[in-house]
Fold this protein.
Amino acid sequence: ESQSAVAIRNLLDRATRDYPQDEEVWYLMGWALNQQQRGVEAERALREHLRRTPQSPKGHAQLAVALLAQQRYVEAVEVLQAALKLKPTWRELYSNLGFACVQLGRDEEAIGHFRDALALDPNYLPSYAALAELLSRRGGRDEARRLLQQAFEMDPADTRVGAMLQKLDASQ
């Protein structure tokens, strides 16, 4: 753990002690813990944030990240669906929902969520890659190649997209 990460966490620990009624401090604590991949601790802070502000889309989004990190996919789906009711135009919610559905073996649902994410933001490369990977696994190689080609044209330096295209071409 870096010195700056420790300093930030210490600052947020002090802030939650000194200002326990401030819901934003709890959100920031959860966000910082998610950045450090400390899902259990992030979940506690984010649940406190949501207890104080249950209509917080960003709180729901970060709680879902904490649950995904703990591989609690069913719960993450529920939290993401609640977040979408609050903010239906947030592409990350759809993308994370797609990821959770893939982990649960709900591929058709995941495909729909990745398509929704791309409809909201056609420049979000992770959704292209995730959708292409899922389609390729399910036999939709032509569409997967087309999606990866679009992503590659947007950012030729993205090594993941380039590697996925090469792998798809090599396996044909």
Notes: The radius of gyration is 18 Å. DSSP finds ten helices and no strands in the chain. The mean pLDDT is 91.
